[in-house]
Design goal:
Blueprint (H helix, E strand, L loop, with lengths): L35 H19 L1 H6 L18 E5 L12 E5 L11 E4 L19 H10 L7 E5 L6 H5 L2 H6 L4 H7 L8 H19 L9 E6 L1 H12 L6 E5 L12 H13 L7 E7 L7 H14 L7 E6 L6 H7 L1 H8 L8
Parallel strand pairs: 3-4, 3-5, 5-6, 6-7, 7-8
Antiparallel strand pairs: 1-2, 2-4
Length: about 350
């Protein structure tokens, strides 16, 4: 496992890298010396950070703009996409689900499945709000062609726009937060709604059975995975822990352990408490976590160090746990697309892969 050192209290550069996150930055607690010019720039960043936080619901809804039933189906360079629209749910709002099917899963061959969050951002940058995407079909196809992973179906679940945070912030972490931080956070970014457990009921109890019935899947735990980035990474790790009999592994890219749009201790402490009591046992599970070093990702190193120790204390080994740092990488679909082959191979490849 590789780690980079972060100087707590040092200001990262504010870079405008658009994505499912935003790069409004504030420092962690610490001490530093500033010139008057640097102090004025710091105050400006604080003001901007507060403005971004106040408009968080709008900004984080942007990836779902145009998420109507008539939204165009993404174009891909290989494989094909089928759209599932209007799947009835007793738990959450209906939303499009795009299913990417590679060559080899069109026959009688049964294939693993990976369920991915923020599905509208994964394939076609001509259709995304920020003109970026993971180009996931290219990464998958290259790994399949090189026989590094088996042909695998991708289920790309669109987020619910304005309720994205409500669905992706884990309910049990919220319950572990102290007052008044819990009530303030619920009334703010969560807009008074806590929907993560309902979202997982939709994923596990409604969407997965539909996928297994409609497509040639390997439906057991060993061949079912979940992944995402930023808050999508948080809900993916939560899904593994809450449904360890369903998911054989989870990948989180740029995991947003901060939980909101400013550095804080309340949410990370609640996360540590939750993981100490609920982290999925290592047997039969794989866990991949990473972060970059710029933009929002500049906050994550101290949090990730604690998370890594919790995971290792649970008994995970290099064969089924990876924690990676990508120097210079930020918080955007372009960044995640450049490295997505690494977590895909970690989850879907053989356990004896040499880079584990």
């Amino acid at each position: 496992m590789a780690f980079t050192n972060v100087m707590i209290g040092r200001w990262p550069k504010a870079r405008g890298q658009a994505g499912c996150g935003i790069n409004a930055l504030k420092p962690a607690q610490g001490h530093w010396h500033m010139t008057w010019g640097a102090w004025r720039r710091a105050c400006l960043l604080v003001v901007l950070g507060r403005l971004f936080a106040a408009s968080a619901a709008l900004l984080w809804a942007l990836p779902a703009c145009g998420a109507a039933d008539a939204a165009p189906i993404p174009k891909v360079a290989s494989g094909r996409i089928e759209r599932i629209d209007g799947l009835a749910s007793r738990h959450v709002d209906a939303r499009p689900v795009d299913v990417w099917i590679p060559g080899g899963c069109d026959t009688d061959q049964r294939c693993p499945v990976i369920y991915m969050q923020d599905g509208q951002m994964l394939f076609d940058d001509a259709l995304t709000w920020n003109r970026q995407s993971w180009h996931l079909d290219r990464a998958m196809s290259a790994l399949i062609a090189a026989r590094r992973i088996p042909p695998t179906i991708v289920v790309a679940i669109w987020n619910d726009g304005k309720y994205r945070w409500s669905e992706y912030f884990p309910q049990k972490i919220l319950e572990a937060m102290a007052e008044p931080a819990r009530s303030e956070f619920t009334a703010g970014l969560l807009q008074g709604r806590q929907l993560s457990d309902a979202y997982l009921q939709f994923l596990v109890g409604e969407l997965k059975p539909h996928i297994d019935e409609r497509y040639p899947t390997l439906a057991d735990r060993a061949h079912t995975f979940v992944a995402g980035s930023s808050m999508g990474a948080v809900i993916s790790v939560y899904a593994l822990n809450e449904f360890p009999d369903v998911f054989g592994g989870a990948a989180g890219l740029s995991v947003h352990w901060a939980g909101k749009l400013e550095a804080n201790v309340e949410i990370p402490l609640a996360t540590f408490t939750y993981l100490l009591g609920h982290l999925a046992e290592p047997g039969g599970h794989r866990l991949y976590l990473d972060h970059g070093t710029t933009g929002l990702d500049a906050w994550y190193a101290p949090y990730q160090l604690f998370i890594d120790q919790i995971v290792l204390a649970r008994g995970y080994m290099p064969q089924n746990f990876a924690s990676r740092v990508f120097d210079g990488a930020g918080h955007s679909e372009d960044d995640w697309g450049r490295r997505v082959a690494i977590p895909l191979e970690f989850l879907l490849g053989p356990l004896s892969a040499p880079d584990r």
